[in-house]
Amino acid sequence: MCLVILLGFSGFVFYTGWTQFKVPAGQVGIVVSKTSGISQTPVTNDKFSWSWEFLLPTNARLELFSPKTESFSQTVSGSLPSAKEYARIFNGEADFSYALEFSVEAKASLEQTRALLRDGDIKGQEDLDKVLARSAENFAALAAQKILTAALSDTGCAFEDAQKIASQAAKDFSSEQGAKVQVAAVTLKKYSVPDIALYKKAAASYEEFAASLAISARASAQREAEENSRFKTTMQKMESLGETLKKYPELSDMIKNSDNINKTLQTIDSIE
Questions:
Q1: How far, in Å, CA of 88 to CA of 169, rounded?
Q2: Are 261 and 267 in contact (CB under 8 A)?
Q3: For 207-263, what is each residue's pLDDT tens digit?
Q4: Residue 59: how many CA atoms within 13 Å on its side-chain side?
């Protein structure tokens, strides 16, 4: 009887801590426990695994993840800087918009998955899928920015050059310190950019136009300032004349009977 009880207890202990059978084929399990934290050893279906943490009720759980690389289609579109302003040079008929479509292959290594679990960024596969999708979107925006910068350079950027830039951007993105996911591969499926030569020509013309407007605005401001100054001077003279007429009322008759008002005003001004 003791032997049977001992065997039963041993079997229960073995079954409780046995984690291998809980992981389906093609997936990887990570043991998360209150006592030991996140296990460094992954649990797979083809390798025996036993964890004592499961012997304590509610102490441990097994999170399952797919190690497969996920594929995402990302499109980055918009207009080049100041596109609307530059298009006015051509009566608004020029189109300076762009569209780039990427196929992004993203995945999280086991170490990255453990880090995401540790930092509380994910709790399971569903959360990991969202992280991968956001990372693919962020990467596509970064790669598009690098490609557009190259396209606006003096050497330009052909489709083959754009693909090389995207591939290098994937390597840089994956090797960054603290990277949460890896971009395993990227394919540029669509590369549509406006006529860069026309865009630069419009930019140069717009700068000349803006410079002319600035000169005209400064000249207009100067004329307005001079007119305001003259008006202010005239008002001051009128106020002064009013005070003089109050002081010498007989000058009013002189002004009324004068054949040359300007000369009379100059005479009164000299009297002041």
A1: 35
A2: no
A3: 655 555 565 556 555 556 555 565 556 556 656 656 665 665 665 655 555 555 555
A4: 12
Confidence of residue 186 (pLDDT cuts 50, 70, 90): very high
Structure tokens given for 154: 């003096």
Amino acid, res. 20? Q
Q: Please report how many Cα atoms fall inside a 13 Å half-sphere around the Cα of residue 242, on the Cβ side.
A: 6
CA dist., res. 200 & res. 60, Å (int): 62
The two three-digit tokens of residue 129, written as one number: 């899928």
Q: What's the token pair of residue 234? A: 């005239």
The tokens describing 6, both together, are 């001992």
- Give the DSSP per-residue string, 13-52: HHHHHB-GGGS-TT-EEEEEETTTEE-SS-B-TTS--B-G
* Residues 6+ positions from 161 with CB-CB distance below 8 Å: 150
Torsion, Cα of 261, 267, 271, 272 (10° steps)? 50
- Decide: 29 and 114 in contact? Cβ < 8 Å: no
* The overall pTM is greater than 0.85: no
Nearest to 169 by CA among 206, 190, 140: 140
List all residues 6 or more positions away from 56 whose beta carbon is below 8 Å from its beta carbon. 35
Q: Give, in order, the Cα–Cα distances in Å from 230 to each of 214, 235, 237, 238, 258.
A: 24, 9, 11, 12, 25
Q: DSSP per residue over 235-259, as a string?
A: HHHHHHHHHHHHH-THHHHHHHT-S
Distance spanning both ends of the chain, measured CA to CA: 134
